[in-house]
Amino acid sequence: MITLDLPTFLIGSLLLLAVLTYLVRRWERGVALLAAAVTGGLGLWIWRANLDEPLRQLGFLPVTVDLKGVIQQFGLVLQLQASIQPVVALSLLLAAGAFLLAARVSQGRSFVPFSLGLLVGYLVLSLTVVAPLPPVLMAPLFLVALSAGGIFILQAGRLTATAGPLRTLIPPVLAFPLFLLAAWYIEQIPLNPQDFGPILAGGRLMALGLLLVLAPVPLHGAQPATAQTAPPVVTALLTLLYQLAVLDLLHRTVNAYPFVVDATPLYLWLLGAGVITAAWGGVAAAGATHPGRLWGYAALHDWGLILMALALPGNRGWPLVIFLFTLRAVSLLTGAAGLSQMEEEAGTIALPGLQGVGSRLPWNTAAFLLGVLGLAGFPLSAGFTGHWAALQSVAENDWRLAAVALIASAGVVFGAVRLVRVFFGPLVNRSLPAEQPVSAWTAILALIITASLAVSPQLLEGPVNRILIAFGR
């Protein structure tokens, strides 16, 4: 019987799968389905794993996995801990959803193997418990490397503008020196415990660094610019993986270094950044004429509301953040499912190429529009319940801020309604084929999932509570 620690098994399996899928990348659909099956299976397995019974045998294979096993390499110690177990599982499940969509519409031959490699990087970031510097202080350096790798995946072999993907580097590059300086100040604290100067300086530097990696306005440029040029499924996956990582970083930082909150107005900064981000996302979406940019600005508006929820006092913030992020993932992937098929058939995601597309691809057009509206919290969309709960919580502290976010969401709805008139107007591209059954049923399934969460948001109660327990909330 062979015994493997979980990090070795997980990382080794994904790297082996990445090599295999790269060698047979010519068969894109089969490669994407295989990757979806493996990542989805691993994600569900880790989600359901009981760390109190760490030894688990892999079916009929003579292999036992130690869930609490440790790997030590290059000065790093990796281990699965209860607090990051949901983050690891959710990262794998997000990848599985994206790979399933890529099995329907090509996102570039390199998408699956390179995304698996990037996923390994995010898992290493989550699993790291010991590093040359404390893991939370090293995290921005990991994010710089992962963002740099994501640039090539976002290009997907297209000869398009690189401005959007390159902008993803800006927030972590700006944040890492602040965390490095904060590490120096933290090292000075034990030398003179009566001196509060290092505590204040280290806390302020880390708070500012956290604000930078969260990429609010005016560091938001990567989201809409990338959504305009990159393949939709790639955009959705990389956006969600990065934002899940930074939310986890924020949670671990405030737990490991409480003085970051005590010595700084971090929550006030988050609230201000969230209001500005949500407001600008709505205003820009109202004026957007490119479907990709509208989708990107809608996602920016939704991200602003998550930042506002992070700033809620007491224990009300994190349940809402987790709920909103889960609904955000559903809305982003639903929008990506529709937009990717529209791009595949029309050869573009810009107007006037998509004018009248609704008459030929009605279900995929509906999936894209409902995904956008979900990011604005429109009724009968996945995001409605989360947005309404968040706005109510914000209004209890200051109704004016909730009103700003609500008016901004109306801007996203206005932009979507304007596109409805274009999509279901006169058809420009007469060669646009009719919707195929497989494509239609995939869009219908996405719409059913979205509508189910809109009507029965309690379906997410179990997963959200599971994450809260792991987070110690």
Question: How would you summarize what this structure contains?
Answer:
By secondary structure, this protein is mostly helical. It has 19 helices and six strands. It has three domains: 1-130, no CATH class; 133-264; 285-473, no CATH class.
Question: Secondary-structure blueprint of this entry?
Answer:
Elements: E1 2-5, H1 6-23, H2 28-48, E2 55-57, E3 63-66, E4 70-73, E5 76-79, H3 85-104, H4 111-127, E6 128-130, H5 135-155, H6 163-167, H7 170-188, H8 197-213, H9 222-229, H10 232-256, H11 259-262, H12 266-287, H13 291-310, H14 317-346, H15 362-375, H16 384-397, H17 399-423, H18 437-455, H19 461-471
Parallel strand pairs: 1-3
Antiparallel strand pairs: 2-3, 4-5, 5-6
Structural commentary:
With 473 residues, this protein is mostly helical. The protein folds into three domains: 1-130, no CATH class; 133-264; 285-473, no CATH class. The chain has 19 helices and six strands. It has helices spanning 6-23, 28-48, 85-104, 111-127, 135-155, 163-167, 170-188, 197-213, 222-229, 232-256, 259-262, 266-287, 291-310, 317-346, 362-375, 384-397, 399-423, 437-455, 461-471; strands at residues 2-5, 55-57, 63-66, 70-73, 76-79, 128-130. It has a three-stranded mixed sheet with strand order 1-3-2. The longest helix is centred in the last third of the chain and has 30 residues, at 317-346. It is globular and about 75 Å long. The model has no long low-confidence stretch (mean pLDDT 88).
